[in-house]
Design a protein that fits this description.
Helix content is 39%, strand content 17%. The protein is of the alpha/beta class and 350 residues long. The chain has 2 domains: 2-125 and 263-318, Periplasmic binding protein-like II (D-Maltodextrin-Binding Protein, domain 2), CATH 3.40.190.10; 127-262 and 323-348, 3-Layer(aba) Sandwich (D-Maltodextrin-Binding Protein, domain 2). Strand 1, helix 2 (39-49) and strand 2 (52-57) form a beta-alpha-beta unit.
Length: 350
């Protein structure tokens, strides 16, 4: 009860702050903690429109959606950015958005447009995939796994670290990839597969940071002993960019075989009851502009949804896109997410 009261108090404070801050010359963007954009890009929007941008970060994607639902009658801002296809049905069923059909959608591939009522607009996407320590596989003359099933083979015993789907977005995405590959019913389900991974020594940790920087064996890690980790197909260029000293070539790679990755698509929507709905629509349109789309890869390390957007050289050289990612209908995810996570936990955390 105390936690519930604290949460309501926090929502009230945030709502009050956002109402005070908002006016016709301000647009408040409610988003997740990983949101990043170049200052010069935001200044361009402000100069072109005369509208100031306020960024309100409210936790991870799930927390942002939940808080926006709880504050539906007094929205925290004007735009919500960061709801992805794993939480999309929850947001749409709660009716927290009003439709906005951006003219820029003509340049977005149809595969990213999941809501035919245009309550949300696709902005970016990324693939959750296995990353591997290049040096380990070369030094041990070990072939890369070519399917999810391979990970249960003895040659990959004790090499894989994953995240708990109950506490981690990439962990949830990877679990959904296994649901897509093995199904939830039949003689051999995704739970049977996870039991095989468990018996093969898979390590489960709570979050991405602990897995990637604590347990992964990429160069520069003092304690990591696992040469395979669940991360993103865009992680190798990040690793290269921020390595100190910077290596001559990539030290990690992504495995993007058929059905081995899960594609996350991020959306933005105009919040119902927004103080500045017209400003919100203008900002969403701006997020589909060449300026914003070209800025995202080296800030949020995601791929733009607008076709033919020019990618930075670092992405072209080191980032990969899965040609055939695993997919699960977002409505099916909403219907079964909690049950799948609970069943997974009974297998993996007992």
């Amino acid at each position: 009860m105390k936690r519930f009261i604290v949460s309501l108090t926090l929502l009230f404070i945030l709502s009050t702050m956002s109402v005070i801050a908002q006016d016709a010359e301000t647009v408040v963007v409610v988003t997740h903690d990983s949101f990043a954009v170049s200052e010069a890009v935001l200044e361009m929007f402000e100069e072109e429109t005369g509208i100031a941008v306020e960024i309100l970060r409210a936790g991870d994607a799930g927390q942002v959606v939940n808080q926006s639902i709880l504050s539906k009658n007094n929205p925290l801002g004007d735009v919500l950015f960061g709801v992805d296809n794993t939480f999309l049905s929850r947001a749409l069923n709660a009716d927290i958005f009003v439709p906005h059909a951006s003219t820029a959608l003509e340049s977005v591939a149809e595969e990213f447009v999941l809501d035919d009522e245009n309550r949300v607009t696709p902005i970016d996407y990324g693939d959750v995939c296995l990353n591997y320590d290049i040096a380990y596989f070369e030094e041990n003359d070990l072939a890369l796994p070519e399917s999810l099933s391979d990970l249960a083979e003895t040659e990959y015993a004790d090499l894989l670290v994953v995240q708990n789907p109950a506490t981690s977005s990439p962990g949830l995405a990877f679990m959904l990839a296994t649901v897509a590959e093995f199904g939830a019913e039949g003689d051999y389900t995704f739970l049977d597969y996870w039991a095989d991974l468990r018996d093969n020594g898979v390590l489960v940790v709570d979050g991405w940071t602990e897995a990637y920087y604590g347990e992964f064996s990429a160069p520069g890690r003092d304690t990591g002993t696992h040469s395979l980790v669940v991360s993103y197909a865009s992680s190798p260029p990040v690793e290269f960019l921020f390595s100190d000293p910077q290596p001559e070539d990539a030290v990690t790679g992504a495995i993007v075989g058929d059905n081995m990755c899960f594609r996350q698509i991020e959306f933005a929507g105009v919040l119902d009851g927004a103080n500045n709905p017209e400003g919100a629509k203008m900002f969403i349109d701006f997020m589909l502009s060449d300026t914003f789309q070209e800025d995202m890869p080296l800030n949020m390390f995601v791929f733009p949804v607008v076709e033919d957007t020019e990618l930075p050289e670092l992405f072209v050289e080191y980032a990969q896109i899965a040609e055939n990612p695993a997919t699960v209908d977002y409505a099916l995810i909403e219907e079964n997410r909690e049950e799948w996570i609970q069943s997974w936990a009974e297998v993996m955390l007992r």
